[in-house]
Design a protein that fits this description.
Layout: E1 7-10, H1 15-21, E2 26-28, E3 31-34, H2 38-48, H3 53-56, H4 60-70, H5 75-81, H6 83-89, H7 109-120, H8 127-132, H9 141-153, H10 168-183, H11 203-215, H12 223-230, H13 234-245
Antiparallel strand pairs: 1-3, 2-3
C-alpha cells in the first residue's frame, strides 16, 4: 500500500534535493523511511497528521509556550544557556550552509519559543533538538524564554546557502501569491503573532522542511500549510526555497 515506506536509516541532510527528485521520501533532518511493521506505520502516520489549532492549544507544548511568552526574558542568562546550542548553531546563530542546521540568528523569540516547546514534547522530530530542549538543559519555560530572547539579538551578516537561481522567478511569484500576506512582503515574519522570519534562511534547510511538510511528517505544520505545499510540484518548491534564501 505504501511501497516507499521502508524503516529508518540515516542519510546526509543535503540529500533532500537529490532524493526527492529521484522519488525518495525523507522524514526529517537526515532520516529516511525504510520498511516497518504495519502497527508501527499506522502509529507514525497518525502522529504525523497536522493538528488543528484548538487541539494544539491543549497540549503540553502549548502550555510550555504560553508560560514562556508570559515570562520576562533575561537575554544575559540566555547567552549562558546558548553555549550548549552553539556547537551546532554556531556562536553567531548562522547554522550550516548545507541546510543540516538552520540559521536562527535574529529569529523572532516567540517563534523560537514555540519550536523549542514542540521539540521538547516531540511535536517536531530531531534527536539533537529533542535532547537540548529537554528539561535537563532548559529547566523550565523561563529558560526557554531567556535563550530565545538571546538568539533574537544575534546578527548574521555572512553568506547563507542559496540554490542555483534558475527557478527563483517561479518562487517569487508563489511567495507573493500564497505566503506574503502572513510572512510579510520581504519574508520578515511577525514577531507578535509568532510568524517565522523566512528571508535569508538556508536554501537546503527550507527545501527539506517543505518536503517534510508535503509528506506529512511535520506534525506542527498547520493543515493549511500542508495542503498548500502538497499543491506544489518539486520545481515550485525548489523555486520557493531559493527565492526565500535570497531575500534580505
Amino acid at each position: 500500500m505504501f511501497p516507499w515506506i521502508v524503516g529508518v536509516r540515516h542519510a546526509p541532510p543535503n540529500t533532500y534535493v537529490s532524493a526527492y527528485r529521484s522519488g525518495a521520501r525523507l522524514l526529517h533532518n537526515g532520516v529516511a523511511m525504510e520498511r516497518m511493521r504495519p502497527h508501527r506505520l499506522c502509529a507514525l502516520l497518525l502522529a504525523a497528521l497536522p493538528w488543528p489549532a484548538a487541539v494544539w492549544a491543549a497540549t503540553p507544548a502549548a502550555q510550555d509556550y504560553q508560560e514562556a511568552i508570559a515570562r520576562t526574558p533575561d537575554p544575559q542568562r540566555g547567552a549562558r544557556l546558548y553555549v550548549t546550542c552553539a556547537g551546532c548553531h554556531r556562536e553567531n546563530g548562522s547554522g550550516n550552509i548545507d541546510g543540516s542546521v538552520p540559521l536562527i540568528a535574529g529569529q523572532h523569540p516567540r517563534v523560537l519559543m514555540r519550536q523549542l516547546a514542540d521539540y521538547r514534547h516531540a511535536r517536531r522530530w530531531d534527536a539533537r533538538m529533542q535532547h537540548y530542549s529537554d528539561t535537563h538543559v532548559l529547566a523550565d519555560p523561563q529558560a526557554i524564554a531567556d535563550v530565545a530572547a538571546y538568539v533574537g539579538t544575534l546578527e548574521f551578516r555572512g553568506r547563507n546557502g542559496t540554490g542555483d537561481g534558475k527557478l527563483v522567478p517561479i518562487g517569487r511569484s508563489l511567495f507573493a501569491m500564497h505566503c506574503a500576506a502572513c510572512h510579510g512582503k520581504a519574508g520578515e515574519g511577525n514577531a507578535g503573532d509568532a510568524v517565522p522570519r523566512v528571508a535569508g534562511q538556508h536554501f537546503a534547510y527550507l527545501l527539506g522542511q517543505f518536503h517534510e511538510a508535503r509528506a506529512g511528517s511535520r506534525r506542527a505544520f498547520t493543515a493549511e500549510h500542508v495542503q498548500m505545499l502538497q499543491g506544489f510540484d518539486d520545481d515550485q518548491l525548489t523555486g520557493l526555497a531559493d527565492a526565500l534564501s535570497r531575500m534580505k
